[in-house]
Amino acid sequence: MSKDIRKTIISKVHRVIIKVGSSVLTDQSGGLSDSIFEKLAEQISKIKDKNIEVIVVSSGAIASGMKKLGLAERPTEISMKQAIAAAGQSTLIWHYEKAFSDFNKNVAQILLTLDGLSDRKRFLNARKTVSTLLSMGIIPIINENDTVAVEEIMLGDNDNLAAHITSLIEADLLIMLTDIEGLYNKDPRVNKDAELISLIDHIGEEIENTAGDTFGKTTIGGMKTKIEAAKKAAAYGVPTIIANGNNGSTLEEIFEGKEVGTLFLPSEQSLSGRKHWIAFTLKSAGEIIIDGGAVSAISSSGKSLLPSGIKDVKGSFGVGESVTCVDESGKPVARGLTSYSSEDIKKIKGSKTSDIEAILGYKYSDEVIHRDDLAVIVE
Questions:
Q1: According to CATH, what is the number of the domain 284-376?
Q2: Which residues are CB-contacts of 329 (< 8 A; sequence separation ≥ 6)?
Q3: Within the chain, which residue ranges are assigned CATH 2.30.130.10?
Q4: Hey, is 289 helix, strand or coil?
Q5: Whether the Cβ atoms of residue 231 and residue 164 lie closer than 8 Å to each other
Q6: DSSP 3-state assignment of 369?
Q7: Less crowded by CB within 10 Å, the N or C end of the chain?
Q8: Sign of CA pseudo-dihedral 187, 164, 341, 292
Q9: H helices within 76-204, ranges in order?
C-alpha cells in the first residue's frame, strides 16, 4: 500500500525541495565531505534530467566555518556564529559549484532571513527570483543568512526554512536528508528494538512526542524540527519524506517509488499560499482568547472572528499585525491579521458588531479578523 502511494506521489512531482543537513555533508573530522557532494550532485542531476525542477536547502556554513577556523564546538554567541557562517558560506557554495560542474549544471546561492519572508512584497520577490532561476535551468542553493540574522529575524533551523520554501515556490514534494533512516517509534540510538515508521497519514500529538531535539557539535534541531517542517508542508498540501542522506542512492530510490525513509502525507484540507504564509511565516505579535462558539465558527464553518466571541487579549499589537487565536485552554486555533489594535479589542471584546462604533467612536470593520485573513491551524 505504501509503495503504491509513493509511486503515485512521485509521478506527480514537477518541483522538489531537497533539504540537506550538516550531518550529511560533513565527514568524521567535521569538515565538508567532497565525496558526499559528488554523490548528491550526481543524484540531483539525474532528477533534473527527468525534467523535474530541484531546489536545495542546505545547511553546512557553520560546520564549514568551524573546520576552517579550527573550532571544536559550536558557539552560542550570535556574533560568533555570524562570523563563522561568513567564513564557511563561501566554502559551502564552492563545494556545490565544483560538484555540479562535473554534470554541467549551474547553481546559484540565495540567503534568506525571516524578515525577508514575513514581508509579503519581499516574499513574492523571493519567489520570482527562485522561479526565474528554475526557468533558466539553474539549481538554487538556499540557506538561512546566518551572517546577519539576529534572534528577532532568525528562522532557527533549515528544516523550518525548507518548509517555508515549500510554500514560497509551490513545491510538490519536500525531501529532508539526515543521518538516520527516518522516524522511528523510539530513539534507535538507545533502543535496539526501535522500528522505522514507513508511512504517517496525520501528524498529531503522538507523532510529535515521538521525536526529540538533537544538538551536536555542528548541528541543531533533530527529528523534532523535521516533524514540525513536515507538518507545515502538509498544511500546504505537500508530502514530505525524511530519509538517510548518507546512502549514495537514496534520492534515486525515492524517485523510483521505493519504500525509503518515512513518508508524511499531506493534510486533506490544505491552506492557500497566502493563508499558509499567515499561519506559518509571520511572527505572532499576541494572542486573542476566544470562546467555544468562536472556535467552532472559525474552525468548522470558515467564519470571521467577531468581537462577541472574544474573551481576552494578550500582548500589545497594532492594526494589521499577525495574532494567534487560542481557545480558553490556551490551545492555538488559528492565526490571522487583525483589523483592530490590542487596546481596541480589549474595549470591544464580547460586544456586538453593531456596538463597535459607539464604543470606539469609529469602526474599521465588523470583523476583528476577516476570514480572508484568517488561517486555521490544522491539527
A1: 2.30.130.10
A2: none
A3: 284-376
A4: strand
A5: no
A6: strand
A7: N
A8: negative
A9: 78-101, 114-118, 120-135, 158-168
Which residues fall within 8 angstroms of residue 12, CB to CB, at 6 or more apart?
172
CB 328 within 8 A of CB 312: no
Which cell is 85 given? Answer: 557562517
**From the CB of residue 316, how many other CB atoms can be counted at a distance below 10 Å?**
11
Question: What's the length of the chain?
Answer: 379
Q: What is the mean pLDDT of residues 44-69?
A: 92
Read off the C-alpha cell for 25.
Answer: 555533508
- Cell readout for 356 is 463597535
In three-state secondary structure terms, 12 is coil
- Least confident segment among 22-31, 122-131, 164-173: 22-31
Q: What is the sign, positive or negative, of the torsion defined by CA atoms of 85, 89, 91, 96?
A: positive
Q: Is 51 left (phi over 0), alpha (psi -120 to 50) or beta?
A: left
Report the top-level CATH class of 2-274: alpha beta
* Assigned C-alpha cell, 176: 529532508
38 phi and psi angles, rounded to 5 deg: -65, -40
Dig out the grid coordinates for 34 from the structure.
567532497
Q: What is the DSSP string of 209-251?
A: HH------SS----HHHHHHHHHHHHHTT--EEEEETTSTTHH
The model's pLDDT over 230-266, given as tens digits with 9 standing for 90+, comes to 998 988 889 999 999 988 899 999 999 999 999 999 8
Burial class (CB in 10 A: 0-12, 13-18, 19+), 115: middle
Mean pLDDT of the chain: 87
Extract the C-alpha cell encoding 245: 542522506
Q: Which residues in the chain belong to E strands, given as ranges?
A: 15-20, 53-58, 107-112, 139-144, 173-178, 199-200, 240-244, 262-264, 287-290, 310-314, 322-326, 332-337, 374-376
